Each structure stands twice: as structure tokens, then as C-alpha cells.
Amino acid sequence: MKEYLKELTKGCWTVPNLLSVLRIIMIPFFAYYFMQKELLIAVIILVLSGLTDFFDGKIARRFNQISTLGKILDPLADKLTQITIAVVFFITFWRADGLVHTFSVIFLIFLIKEAVMVLGAVAMIILGLKPGAAEMPGKVATFAFYLIMISIMFFGPGIGITGIYYPDVVMIVLISISAILTLIAFCSYIPGVKQQLREKKEKKSAENIQ
Asked: What domains appear along the chain, each with residue ranges and CATH number?
């Protein structure tokens, strides 16, 4: 554990890590403006958050500023942002009437998935394992999640900032697609975790034999 903490702090003062921290700082501002129904400002903050996410990865690879801490901060910022988005949408849908109110429970899928991922990452660090990098299903699910949620902020029935709304059913279908992609992404991480646990067990067994 001590060795991992030492590795975690090595070369941590980088631009990509600072951008990840900035993304985390943006989260409460997004939530505040969303709940105040200042959706245009909320969208702008979300877009800026997405840009920092894009550029921190580009900068890290271009200038070789990849760090162990960055591999944790980047997905942590993503997950905290997604959890916040799911919470504010859940509250908004829960306050609505009819089918939208009933459908609000689907946001619990996003919340449970992200909460399990965060707790799982903490547990892996405690066990001396390294949380895996985002797989392609995770990247696709994240992109779809942001795209769909932003589209709802623009065109969602009753809340869209454009005043041009698509039907409730269209919104529900879009969110359902995002939820399915989220579940697929979650399942894609399981083999990697099992592999690390198996390797750790085999290594421990080999050390005991010696």
C-alpha cells in the first residue's frame, strides 16, 4: 500500500491532473445552475467540462504527462460528473407528472453503476490493484450519456431551452439506450478485475511456496 501511495504521488503536478481537478470543481456549479433552471449556463459548464476531459488526455499523451494519479483523477472526475447529472435529472423527472415521473427510476441505474464503480476502484486500491483504464464500451457509453443528456437539456419536454420539444416517448427511448450502454460498459470491466484478482492470488501462492 505504501509503495502504491508513493507511486500515486510521483509526478502528480501536471497540467492534465490540474484539468481533472478543475473538472471536479465545475460539478457543483453545474448542479446549481441546472436546479435553478439556468440550463444554458449548465450546458456551457458541461461543454467546458467535456473540453477539459478531451484536452487532458491529449496533453498527457503528447507531452508524456501520464501519471498514476491522473489515471485515477480522470475517471473519478467523469464518474462524479455523471453521478451529478443523473441526480439532478432524477430529481427533475421525479417532480414531473405522468410517464416522465414514472420513468425517473431509470436514473437509479446510472447512479448505482457509478457508485459501484467508485467504491470498486477504492476497494481495488486498498487491495493493491490498479483500476483498469476505460474500455471501448465504457467510452461509447460515456459519449452517448453526455450527448443524450445535453440533447434533453435542449429539447426535453418541459425543460428544453430551445422551446422545441420532442415527444416524451423519444426522450424515454434515448435514456433507455444510454442505460443499456451503461450496463454493457459496467460488465466490460468485470473480466479485467477478475484477471487482476487471479494474478494477485497466484503471485501470493507462489510467494508462500518459496
From this structure: 2-199 (1.20.120.1760)
